[in-house]
Specification:
The complex is a heterodimer of chains A (about 450) and B (about 525). Chain A has helices at about 1-5, 15-45, 50-65, 70-95, 100-120, 125-155, 155-175, 205-210, 210-235, 235-240, 245-275, 285-305, 305-315, 320-325, 330-355, 370-380, 385-405, 415-425, 430-435. Chain A is about 75% helix and about 0% strand. Chain B contains 17 helices and 24 strands. The chains are: A mainly alpha (about 450), B alpha/beta (about 525).
């Protein structure tokens, strides 16, 4: 009722903040809990035996965390979820419902493989960034087409990205089985990428770091990280007033340099002496570190830059964005390209770090891109939430096999539980009803996911 | 069926000579965190027009929604004709003889007047009644009754006309007939004059008086003091969920009512020195623009605004004002004509280019264009300048600078907010509007375009915003003020242009213009002839 809004006194800040906090954290957790309860009911109903429920969940937990390489495989599955979730979250925040992540993932993978094959003899410090860039560009281009169509003609991105998925699947199949095919292999798959384009598994690190150039690459990564952290630290209120600008620059630069130097000289030596990862069958790779850095970068982009401000404004209120002078067409293009680039990197990492043949096989089954829609919604498009949600989804995906083995429950129950999570997240009022909770009245900063088809 | 005669007995009450037909005592209604109605007493006598006055958020809509059955009171009793009763739904309210004419009409444009009126209460042709829900409608009988009712109460309504072809005033009469058709004895009119010209409002008052003469009773909600004096028998004022008091037009003065409404002394007239117009800032030549359905709603509009003056554009809502303002600010495509700002052609410039040339824009719809409700107050205060120094350096936002600016503006413009981190959507309308005005006036603007800058605001906020607009003028800013509130136009403007059906019909000096003259122009009558 309009009068409800009209005749409401502003809530006190503290109470509102607490409610917002509870809603931001509590609702997703409740949704997860309810989804698992729902999953249990379905397993119980289909098997007629409550013991099966326990066996299934016990198998899932064991498969995801306890069995040999269980935990590291969970992290392996978490990595692409993080990238894809971030990509979708950027789109959702800006009001674009990109459901073509799966296709962008494939195009990213094939672009990266191509760049991994055609360039040879490059050192890893060059080749690895090149393949990542190729994957990102492939995904960006693929998502950019629907972005362009939307900006130009108003074609709805849900339709176009969905259709672009099918084109991506068939195009990848063609590229794998004709131009990039490894004709010597009996399986239909692409050529193997150059070893320097591979993403390092963790057990390989000591060996990889013995190469000075690789050590330099790692040092640059850590130096950049330290620089960003130091910059954030000195910009905080207290420090900002205590130190002059030039003094702050010295502190920031010094920290970056010191950490870089320490990493360059220290890490190779350290890893020779002590390194916990030695299992050669462990597929855990450095992608997880890059993914965490990406989550931080996306958070920074969304909340600390003018571009992020524009994207959020367009998502929250396109009319106000236009009024404020924001170029909406340009914003749609950039958002879609960024969203696709992150999906493309997910594909890149999957094929260069996880695929056993370090190539793209014809039957490269993923499904990551579709799951990530539920993931981004669950995380309410919050980068930190994405990391947590990706871990949950990774664990479920990884635990599914042992669950099926131990209890005989089909592993597709996982999709069912994910579906329930999505259902409960998308309908918080239903959760409230189920749990008899009183609605916390507030206005959410959330991109509307049900906007007209115009 | 609700067609039975409503149970209103004539029970003489203790006070005075008149009969009380509806009485509410001790009505309390709580919403989470808000006491919307606090032990409110209200009574309506037979054949009277009882005005209900109050600012937004005073609780008058809640009270009316309770009387109309949309809400149930937490405490308190409603008496109809002396008998305690419960009104459980709008349907129930109608059955008990209470009708409501909402501010936003509840009519279906592609249907005829008759169809709209009988909607939900269709009378059927007796011969076909056996067919149940498939029986034929008795349109002719209904139309006859509508004619009879409109004749009886002096309501000019053609039963066969289509709603979409009717002007707003006629649509309102249809709403009234709809209530009468349902045998309403008590009519609640919620801000009925908001969409009318002064002459149409006067016509409505004649109808209202004719209704009460024939035994109906009316609750009349408005925030315009003038109308209270024009038409009511008694006036009740609400503030902060409480009933402040009841008086009569004879005993009350405008100042007194305003004070009851706001709780403190209010200056109704803005002190305004004569304008000293300077160079032309904005020149509009033969501007043409279309609305969203590609109908031409701005025809050959030409005018200019000079520095240090306020040009008011008067007109009934929906005469092309919105499209005009959007065309001037780059939000709408200009079909033909020319817009010049400081001798620079901005006809096809982007909104950002126009902003950067020094135009401030207070948009008509603060929720749609003016604010991002889900963003904090802080971000809304830099919505148009977030990318400029010092708020950003290159791509990176300087949160501290934005916070400083926000703190400064919150203090300077008296924005009542718990913090700069509070979401704009949780502020009251007046404070939301202050956020916009603060943002648009803080820049060194050469032209301020304010479209309906005080719509729906409380008296205190209106006073504040009016003062700021006049101050901007005194700082040599050119001001284009668009408003459907004639009082606002007459209070603030130095010159007044009247817009009718997309044309600027005439431009008058504010000092010479009379309400009657402007009212005629707003209705499209110029020099004695209808345009």
């Amino acid at each position: 009722m309009s009068s409800l809004v009209e005749e409401r006194a502003p809530q006190t800040a503290g109470r509102a903040a607490r409610l917002a906090m509870l809603d931001a954290l509590g609702m997703p957790l409740l949704a997860i809990l309810l989804a698992f309860v729902g999953g249990a009911l379905i397993i119980w109903a289909t098997s007629g035996d409550f013991g099966t429920v326990l066996a299934a969940y016990e198998g899932m937990i064991s498969g995801a965390f306890i069995k040999t390489r269980g935990f590291s495989e969970t992290l392996v599955a978490t990595t692409p979820y993080i990238f894809l979730g971030l990509g979708l979250a950027i789109g959702f925040k800006a009001g674009l419902f990109n459901i073509g992540a799966e296709g962008q993932f494939y195009i990213g993978a094939i672009s990266a493989v191509w760049a991994g094959i055609v360039f040879t003899g490059l050192p890893a410090i060059l080749h690895l960034p090149i393949v990542m860039l190729a994957g990102a560009l492939g995904g960006a281009l693929w998502a950019g087409i629907p972005g362009f169509l939307k900006a130009r003609t108003g074609a709805h991105e849900v339709i176009t990205t969905m259709m672009m998925n099918y084109i991506a699947f068939r195009l990848t199949e063609f590229l794998v089985s004709v131009p990039l095919r490894d004709t010597l292999s009996s399986a239909v798959q692409t050529l193997r990428v150059s070893p320097n384009a591979e993403l390092w598994s963790l057990w390989q690190i000591p060996q990889r770091l013995s190469d000075r150039l690789n050590a330099l690459a790692v040092a640059i990564f850590f130096a950049a990280l330290a620089l960003a952290l130091a910059r954030w630290f000195v910009a905080r209120g207290d420090m900002a007033t205590r130190l002059t600008l030039s003094r702050r620059r010295v502190v920031v630069g010094g920290t970056g340099l010191a950490v870089g130097a320490l990493a360059f000289f220290g890490l190779p030596a350290l890893t020779q002496v002590w390194w916990p990862f030695s299992d050669q069958y462990d597929r855990l790779h450095i992608g997880i570190v890059i993914a965490l850095a990406a989550a931080a970068a996306v958070w920074w982009l969304m909340y600390k830059t003018t571009l992020g401000f524009e994207m959020r404004t367009v998502g929250a209120n396109p009319s106000a964005a236009r009024y404020a002078g924001i170029n909406i067409s340009r914003n749609i293009l950039i958002t879609m390209a960024l969203s696709g680039a992150l999906a493309g990197i997910a594909g890149t990492i999957e094929v260069l770090g996880v695929s056993i043949c370090r190539c793209l096989p014809l039957f490269f089954s993923s499904g990551y891109g579709f799951d990530s829609i539920a993931l981004a919604l669950l995380a309410k498009n919050n980068p930190i939430g994405i990391v947590g949600g990706a871990f949950l989804f990774g664990a479920m995906r990884n635990g599914a096999d042992l669950m099926e083995l131990n209890s005989g429950v089909s592993k597709y129950v996982i999709s069912l539980i994910q579906g329930l999570v999505l259902l409960f997240v998308a309908a918080p009022s239903m959760v409230r009803y189920l749990l008899r909770m009183r609605a916390a009245r507030k206005i959410e900063e959330e991109a509307p996911l049900t906007r007209g088809w115009g | 069926m609700a067609l039975a005669s409503p149970p209103i007995a004539s029970v003489r009450q203790t006070h005075g000579e008149a009969t009380t037909t509806l009485q509410a005592t001790g009505i309390t209604k709580r919403f989470p965190g808000v006491l919307a109605n606090d032990r409110v007493d209200f009574d309506l006598r037979q054949s009277e027009i009882h005005g209900l006055l109050g600012e937004n958020g005073a609780g008058k809509t809640t009270l009316m929604n309770i009387l109309y059955g949309l809400y149930q009171p937490d405490e308190g009793t409603i008496f109809l004709g002396g008998q305690p009763t419960q009104i459980t739904s709008p349907h129930d309210a109608i059955a008990q003889g209470i009708g409501m004419v909402h501010q936003h009409f509840m009519l279906v444009p592609p249907l005829t007047v008759t169809e709209n009126i009988i909607l939900g209460q269709e009378s059927l042709q007796p011969a076909t009644r056996v067919l149940g829900r498939l029986s034929a409608l008795d349109r002719r009988g209904a139309a006859a009754r509508i004619r009879e009712l409109s004749h009886q109460y002096g309501l000019d309504v053609d039963p066969d006309a289509y709603i979409k072809d009717l002007p707003v005033g006629a649509q309102q009469r249809v709403e009234i007939v709809k209530a009468l058709y349902r045998r309403a004895e008590i009519l609640i009119l919620d801000e009925p004059t908001a969409v009318l010209t002064p002459q149409e409002a006067d016509e409505l008052f004649v109808i209202m008086q004719s209704l009460v003469r024939q035994g109906k009773s009316i609750i009349f909600i408005t925030h315009k003091l003038r109308e209270m004096f024009a038409v009511t028998d008694r006036i009740s004022v609400m503030r902060g969920g409480k009933m402040v008091g009841t008086t009569t037009p004879k005993q009350a003065t405008s100042e007194m009512l305003a004070e009851m409404m706001v709780g403190r002394k209010v200056i109704l007239q803005i002190d305004k020195a004569p304008a000293h117009p300077g160079a032309v800032i904005l020149r509009v030549d033969n501007l043409q623009a279309q609305d969203d359905r590609h109908a031409m709603t701005v025809h050959d509009a030409s005018f200019e605004v000079r520095e240090g003056e306020i040009l008011g554009i008067a007109g009934v809502q929906g005469n092309g004002q919105r499209e005009l303002v959007e065309a001037l600010t780059g939000l709408r495509h200009v079909v033909a004509g020319k817009v010049e700002l400081l001798s620079q052609d901005i006809t096809h410039a982007t909104p950002r280019a126009i902003t950067e040339l020094g135009v401030g824009h207070v948009p008509e719809d603060r929720h749609k264009h003016g604010l991002v409700l889900t963003f904090p107050v802080r971000d809304n205060l830099v919505l148009c300048t977030y990318y400029e120094s010092p708020f950003a350096r290159g791509l990176v936002i300087n949160a501290a600078a934005i916070e400083n600016e926000a703190q400064k503006l919150v203090k300077e413009f008296d924005i009542r907010t718990p913090s700069t981190d509070t979401l704009a959507g949780s502020l009251s309308g007046g404070n939301q509007q202050k956020v916009i005005v603060a943002r648009e006036l803080d820049r060194p603007v050469k032209l301020l375009i304010a479209n309906q800058p005080t719509r729906g605001l409380d008296v205190g906020s209106i006073e504040f915003i009016h003062r700021r607009i006049v101050e901007a003028r005194d700082r040599r800013t050119a001001v284009l003020l668009v408003s459907a509130e004639l009082d606002e136009i007459m209070t603030l403007s130095d010159r007044i242009a009247v817009m009718y059906k997309g044309r600027i019909l005439d431009t008058l000096a504010a000092s010479d213009a009379t309400r009657e003259q402007l009212g005629l122009l707003m209705a499209g009558v110029k020099g004695g002839a209808h345009v």
